[in-house]
Amino acid sequence: MPLLHWLTRDTDIHAASETPYRLLEEMRELSCGERDTANMLIQGDNLDALKALLPYYAGKVKCIFIDPPYNTRSAFEHYDDNLEHTKWLAMIYPRLELLRELLSEEGSIWVTIDDNEAHYLKVIMDEIFGRKNFIGAVSWEKSDSPRMDAVFFSYRHDNVLVFAKNLAAVLFKKIPSNEIPEHYNRTDEKDRRYYTKPLRAMGGQGETRDARPTLYYSIKAPDGSEIYPRKQDGTDGAWRWNKEKVESEIDRIDWVNGKNGWTPYYRIYAENIKDRPAETIWGHSEVGTNRTSKAEIKLLALPERTFETPKPERLIQRILQIATNENDLVLDSFLGSGTTAAVAHKMGRRYIGIEMGDHAMTHCAPRLQKVIEGEQGGISEAVGWKGGGGFRFYRLGVPVFDESGHVAPEIRFAPLAAHIWFLETGIPYSGNADSPLLGSHEGTGYYLLYNGILGDNRPEGGNVLTTKVLACLPPHDGPKVIFGEGCLLSDERLKSREIMFRQIPYDIKAR
Fold first, then answer.
1. In a domain, 476, yes or no
2. Does residue 203 register a pLDDT over 70?
3. 505 with 400: CB under 8 angstroms?
4. Whose CB has fewer CB within 10 Å in the chain, the N or C terminal residue?
5. Do 68 and 111 contact (CB within 8 A), yes or no?
């Protein structure tokens, strides 16, 4: 597969792996609503934040929506959007790598971008997600009026690139539709609109008498003649319906007498339309425009700052309608004004929003607080939103490891436990981190002796594996991996107890 090359590529493709793991520290005074919520608002560099989320959320996110800087060479107030092409690629590549790790197998990622970088972004995403996992590109009509001062084209659309983690596992939902398509162009005696399709199966080699013998039979035409399913070459074909269904649905059969004789068609009524597949062109009347979103933000009466390209709530609603179900986890690592989190909250999805600027506090948190209070802007009326829920506000803490590779002295037991569990098993940690036995994975028990989990910080108190400490450990029947600061047991003793000892910090992967 062709790869995209740029000046700093060799360095940039390793940026994600070289980013240190950091702690996430909750700011209780900035959190809001229900305390047991899983919703997270994180302030900090999104590369660091994404790496910090891995031990907990790798493979757990159902839908990612990001609206990264467009590299328009017209710097925004809140983003360094005036990035040259190489710097833009250096920024986006490692973040996409980490986002892929966070996606679930049935998950999808949606990225809005304009034509300045869209084609380069597609090549990069082909590399990271796999070209076979490309789902499509949506054109969103972001403006409801032309620009009369345009030199060449009046650009009125943005692109939304959509990729799957694993295309075979993705199942998109259809979207509700109250419109009747134009091809329902006939009306019956009850004024019901419909169109017709041939009753004869129109497929390929499989739609033959030999392949489908139960679907080969005669139907009586209006003149009493017996009609069999014949293919255009005169060979025997097959009907779409079996004989019993034809008899029960005879009122839906229309007959046409053409040059080759009678042909039966069946009616498809518009009243049976409930949902339709999403299309690749989303008009401004369907999902709103930049003008719509600016008005939505203005109604929230947030501090006076201008977001040049906010996204309307209906746009995010459409994406979440297609790609998620209630309680699924949604992630936006370029949260901006907070639209994705607000919409996910109103639609009953769990969410993680990451924003590096001060407006994580001045705009995102206040906006979500208004959502919790029941604000009625955006999609609130459409989804029947009345308020409730909550979110937790986090900031990035210190790296798990210091510059020399040792565990930083500020690190507590729980984050180190989550880090070790993820690196050993490849799955997020969901335990309580209140025991040296972190859990069992594929028959192996994983233990951590750190920070006096068994009582105190003296060697005999639990950080060093001794005979006394071993006797105090919760039992596990099978192989055991034990992390600790030291070990006083012989190799023979470890082998007899099926123990693999790993020393902190040397046997912990620092990056």
1. yes
2. no
3. no
4. N
5. yes
| Residue 82 pLDDT > 60 | no
Neighbour order of strands in the sheet with 253-258 = 186-187, 193-198, 261-269, 253-258
The structural domain count of the chain equals: 3
pTM of the full structure: 0.75
Q: State yes or no: pLDDT of 308 exceeds 70.
A: no
Q: List the domain range (segments joined by +) for residue 435.
A: 413-503
Residue 510 covered by a domain: no
Task: Pick the closest to residue 200 from 271, 257, 253, 272 (CA basis).
Answer: 253
Q: Tokens for 452, please give them.
A: 């006096």
pLDDT over 60 at 83, yes or no:
no
Mean pLDDT (the chain, rounded): 88
Best CA proximity match to 342, nearest among 306, 302, 303: 302
**Cα dihedral value 208, 214, 218, 222, nearest 10:** -100
Q: In terms of Cα–Cα distance, which of 6, 158, 4 is closest to 85?
A: 6
Residue 267 falls inside a structural domain: yes
Task: In whole angstroms, give the CA distance from residue 417 to residue 293.
Answer: 42
The amino acid present at 210, given as its one-letter code, is D
Which of helix, strand or coil describes residue 82? coil
Strand pairing report for 157-164 and 134-141:
antiparallel
223 burial via Cβ count (<10 Å: 0-12, 13-18, 19+): exposed
Burial class (CB in 10 A: 0-12, 13-18, 19+), 14: middle
- Same domain? 38 vs 148: yes
Answer yes or no: do 336 and 308 share one domain: yes
CA pseudo-torsion sign 385, 390, 393, 399:
negative
DSSP 360: I
CA angle 303, 315, 165 (to 5 degrees): 115
Which has more confidence, 196 or 234?
196
Helix (H/G/I), strand (E/B), else coil: 506: coil
The candidate with the shortest Cα–Cα distance to 21, out of 329, 358, 411, 352, is 411
93: domain CATH number is 3.40.50.150
